[in-house]
Write a structure and sequence with these properties.
417 residues, alpha/beta, 2 domains, 29% helix, binds ligand LLP
């Protein structure tokens, strides 16, 4: 038992579907992100089927992992997409996503990004301020288009998650203040080149309880009822993303329980329901494979210096996030307390503290739950080329992104004549 449903030990070797991870190391090297196609498919279906007969659209939050292969897989499963930039729009279109299933979120959409999204005829703009609504109306007018709009309302609900990823409190930069929303809906109705079609909220990420979602949802429903009473017709309600996953000891609700409970709150209302899950679709469908370069024992601590670093997976450094770290090949040697650190020149460059492992130089480790906000937040700090990515399907390993080369990193730089 690995503790992770999609990655199991067979003959003491940690496997992804039918592929032992040491084979991936031999074929593609490290550091390498590894995803399971069957895990991605299973989690998507769990979400999608949880809505049962209700008219709905799952819009995968691209920021969690924008790999073309993953987007393409979700597109083929019928997914929509939640994007936050022109770059993500291009990726979704390139991966075969349906523009009519794209919602565009984010507090700072530039007019060129708005233009590109209008040109693609996306499903909806999730607007976060009066100023943005004005720009959207203006750009749409210039293009002789009507922009479909949902207002992202900030319900002022405590998501009880890490402060950096909590977004639904009134002091956060996100959304339209709850008590100003009705007024903005009314003035939005008067604009010539927007059409108000939705209401949405997103209160944060890695939520492990349903209560804050439910509280936010009920506030939105009261607003929805007020709008309907004023003959402002809302076609869809977007519940945002945010459902947490198990990294260590968390016990988040299943997609089924989460969706069922929110749908119970929504009750008889007939609006189409949109949802924007990111982490819960991909987080536990991926891991980061790394190799121990050096073991270093000091009088204070034992360090395992591995070839993945904060530039590959920044979550431990940025949020003090816990990722389980498993040996790829299990042994019965005596364990020691290790600090698992990368080669980057910062003390914050660690993947895990105080892990009980039996390690030797050359061993492979799997940093678990790295499918979401792993590769997507990676950087080239210390001029480190980004990791390769593979997707396993049965006994097949597909290379979905080649390891970057240093030549690529510096190819668009110039020195002065
Ligand atoms: N919708 C909106 C408007 C969002 O801002 C986000 C995430 C999502 C959906 C997807 O949320 P999810 O289902 O993945 O929780 N880098 C952080 C997470 C940042 C989340 C930002 N917004 C981390 O590594 O924990």
């Amino acid at each position: 038992m690995s503790g992770f449903p999609f990655f199991e030990y067979h003959d003491a070797k940690l496997c992804v579907e039918s592929v032992p991870l040491d084979r991936i190391f031999r074929d593609y090297g490290t550091p390498c992100y590894v995803y399971s196609r069957s895990a991605l498919t299973t989690t998507f279906h769990e979400f999608d089927t949880a809505f049962a007969e209700r008219d709905h659209l799952v819009c995968y939050a691209v920021k969690a992992n924008p790999s073309l292969a993953i987007l393409n897989l979700f597109a083929k499963l019928g997914s929509g997409f939640d994007i936050v930039s022109g770059g993500e729009l291009q990726r979704v279109l390139k991966a075969g996503g349906d523009p009519q299933k794209i919602v565009f979120s984010g507090v700072g959409k530039r007019s060129d990004e708005i233009r590109a999204a209008l040109a693609a005829s996306i499903l909806c703009f999730n607007v976060e301020s009066e100023a943005e609504l004005g720009v959207l109306n203006q750009v749409a007018c210039e293009m002789d288009k009507i922009a479909p709009v949902s207002l992202r309302v900030n319900p002022d609900v405590d998501a009880r998650t890490h402060p950096y990823i909590s977004t639904g409190l009134k002091e956060n930069k996100f959304g339209i203040p709850f008590n100003e929303a009705e007024k903005l809906y009314a003035s939005g109705e008067k604009l010539t080149n927007v059409r108000i079609i939705g209401l949405d909220f997103h209160i944060g990420s890695q939520l492990t309880e349903i209560a804050p979602f439910s509280e936010a949802c009920r506030k939105m429903l009261s607003l929805l009822d007020c709008l309907e009473a004023k003959k402002i017709h809302i076609e869809h309600l977007d519940l945002g993303g945010g459902l947490g996953i198990r990294y260590f000891e968390e016990n988040p609700p299943s997609a089924q329980n989460y969706v069922t409970e929110l749908c119970a709150d929504i009750g008889h209302r007939t609006q189409r329901i949109l949802i924007e899950p990111g982490r819960s679709l991909v987080g536990n469908a991926g891991l980061l494979l790394t190799r121990v370069e050096y073991i270093k024992h000091t009088s204070h601590r034992n360090f395992a210096i591995v070839d993945a670093a904060m530039n590959d997976l920044i979550r431990p450094a940025l949020y003090d996030a816990y990722h389980e770290i498993l040996p790829v090949i299990r042994n019965d040697n005596k364990t020691k307390n290790y600090q698992i650190v990368g080669p980057v020149c910062e003390t914050g460059d660690f993947l895990g503290h105080d892990r009980k492992l039996a390690l030797a130089q050359g061993d492979l480790l799997a940093v678990m739950s790295a499918g979401a906000y792993g590769m997507s937040m990676s950087s080239n700090y210390n001029s480190r080329p980004r990791a390769a990515e593979v997707m396993v399907d049965g006994d097949h390993i597909h290379l979905i992104r080649e390891r970057e080369s240093v030549e690529e990193l510096i190819s668009n730089e110039r020195i002065l004549p």
